[in-house]
Amino acid sequence: MNPTTFFIFTTLLKIVGIVFVVILPMVSYAVYAERKVSALIQDRLGPNRVGPAGLFQPIADAMKFLLKEDFTPAHVNKFYYWLAPCLAMVPAITTIAVVPFGSTLFGVPMVIADINVGVLFVFAIASLGVYGIVIGGWASNSKYPFLGGVRSTSQMISYELSLGLAVIPIFLLIGNLRLTEVVQYQIDHGWMIVPFAGDWRNPLAWLLAIPMWISFAVFAIAVFAETNRLPFDLPEAETELVGGYHTEYSSMKFALFFLGEYAAMITGSAIIVTLFLGGWHFPGIPDGSHGWIFGLINIFVFFAKIVVLLFIFIWVRFTLPRFRYDQLMRLGWVFFFEIALVNIFCVAAILAFHAPPFPKHGLQADESDHGIPGGKMGPAVA
Amino acid sequence: MSAIVETIEAMERPPVTMTSRLEGELLEVSMGPQHPSTHGVFRMNVALDGEIVRKLKPVFGYLHRNHEKIGENTSYLGSMPYTDRLDYFCSMTNNWAYALSVEKLAGIEVPERAEYLRVVLAELTRLQNHASLLGFLLSDMGAWGTPLMYAFREREKILDLFESLSGSRMMCDYMRFGGCRVDASAEWLARAKEIVDRFPNFLDEFEKLIVENEILIARTQNVGKLSPQLAISAGITGPMLRACGVNYDIRKVDGYGYYPRFQFRIPLGEHGDTYDRLMMRALEMRESISILNQAFEQIPAGPIMNPKVKVRAFRPPVGEAYGRIEAPKGELGFYLISDGSPNPYRYRVRPPSFINLTILEDLCLGHTVADVMVILGSVDIVMGEVDR
Amino acid sequence: MLRDYLPVLLQIIVAVGFAASALIVSVLLGKAGRRTPIKDSPYECGMVPIGEAQPRFSVRFYLIAMLFILFDLEIVFMYPWAVVYRDMIHGHPVVFWSMLSFVSMLMIGYVYALRKGVLDWRN
Hints:
- The complex is a heterotrimer of chains A (about 375), B (about 400) and C (about 120).
- With about 400 residues, chain B is α+β, with helices and mostly antiparallel strands.
- Chain B has 16 helices and eight strands.
- Chain C is flat and about 75 Å long.
- In chain C, about 25% of the residues are buried.
- Chains in contact: A-B, A-C, B-C.
């Protein structure tokens, strides 16, 4: 098998494996988990009729969505009405392509596309998700979806700023936008939320923990807002706007919006895990070059971290009330925007006084292939 | 089918167009009757400027059942179970208000034990009404049912009490003019006391959940402020009035039943905003618990029904009477005119949630859509009572 | 370089394929129902819609969008700076001060916008 065929073959295998074996079942069972965990929180039983402990509920739901009447109201803009659900689903699945979900398995790196502008790719694709909601709200030609669509546009773009600003400290520290490098750096120097782990005696590394935690908090909260989860679920705000942007949707088209939201949650959690929580790394577990079993364990660790974050997503949803629209905008534009901006300069100042610089990982090894040497990055981004 | 649409359209067009050229283009939305948080089939025609409510017109009557006219064509006893359906959360207090006005009309004495039972049941009703109101309010704020489920857990216990006493959980039909229908056993009172003793635990937990929650404070403080002047001139009663700092509680003012025998305080608000209205309910529950504990101690043995009252062939003398009580939602009154026949000549209900709802527009103008739902939730309405 | 993006393309094809096939299967399997004028009308809490379905909406949403474009560009400028920062900063403090001055200039606009009440939804 020549290298190109092998590359395409393994890539397809990874894509199919990740999308159909991991992400989609995870999405369906996230819905189930949401119902079960909320039941736990609220002293209820939750779904328990379909299969043992209601475990087949997602399958029954999928069948129901497929068999429902496929109705397109007369007043909608047909083309965009059909396009919107796809636009909500596709970016969420596409973003996962650049996230390293494991080390290596049989020598094949466990990332679908190891591109050098990983984070920019994530933001570029993830922000397309807003189109699904806006177009859905607009094409419905009805007032509640319209209000939900307009709300979500301004909400999602506002929190994208905080999202973008919160990750900059990481790249100040690492000097590389490639997500595999981010994970490798964390393996060598401790996860981003414990930047002192590799360098216990360095007070500046300890000092770095403060801005890193701020970054983590801002980023995680902005992910909540980007995925329209409570306390930021204003675009669909059931108690105000009935169903928000998907009021006029039914059957599989509604299901795609619904699954898109959960897929976005999983992708968002994956990005948080990759950027701040060490990706697939867990202290004491070697990477896949030590045997395929470790490669599998690495993948398992990565998704286990995602599951923990999903649990927090659900927990928050059933604990907090919702923000009001103006409070949401003020929080995003005034509080998070400013704190993230100040945070960047704190990290920059710490790094400036920090001598000698942290040893940089991987640049020498990667430079020849497709890594980015530090100083020559500018044009590639623009 | 299209003919139906046209008739509906002709009927439902608001008579006054709400778009004003001076204010630019407003987005007119009909919220309700089929809306997740209008507490039933209530409707508001709202004109929005961005997110801000510029005009609001409440529309009600979707649940109109001709309650008062039916009351005039039914015997005095026949109306008693029907009052359960007014405010279906608090059938006990509805019963009491109706029984009180008939007792006034006919000059009936009520035995001591029955009066105590009435107080116990009315305060239990207040506990479950206020607890579930807080839950609903938080749900309207988007808390997705967790506070509601916590509140309903407590409400279940109280409804179980009602069920074992009257045979029905919500439609109790428990009181009669001249007393109560069935006596409460010693075991029942012991169970009730146990539930009341445990209730403060729930309140502590719930207050921990909500009172210092930053989002809740941001969502409720300075939202939907009501001035005492407006509240008084609009006839607002109940916790909503007291939240503006007006000391008016019919339990103290009228001293009906045996309320003068109990020691309890009337919590008063300072700002009249949604947060005060919310806290008013939490504080009133604490006072209700203290009333209940006193009642459990003082309740005497004895008959529960005045033997002189002929409930079935009841014919009060000619005259009129207005009996009112402090229902959980405010002043609930029944105005009855008797012409000596078995049916009342005039039967009129003064429903607290209907009158409290009339100032909704004043509370909501200038606030956002999200606030409207919170304000509506804090008014505490039940459409069965508003529309009658 | 292009080889890196081939998997992305494949991923997009799979994602679009999944969404499209889900919709197609639903069209094929879903039971066709009766169309009625009421079912075809937009949902407005069970009422016949009043006014226009898509009226002009508040200008504040546009202001937010405009602000976003301004500041999102700023963030894009910060990425290349962030990547080269660690290599450049030692011996070249200008790297720090230049970005600080760039951001402070933008902050003037930011403060102006806030003072003008872009986020003030009450009036």
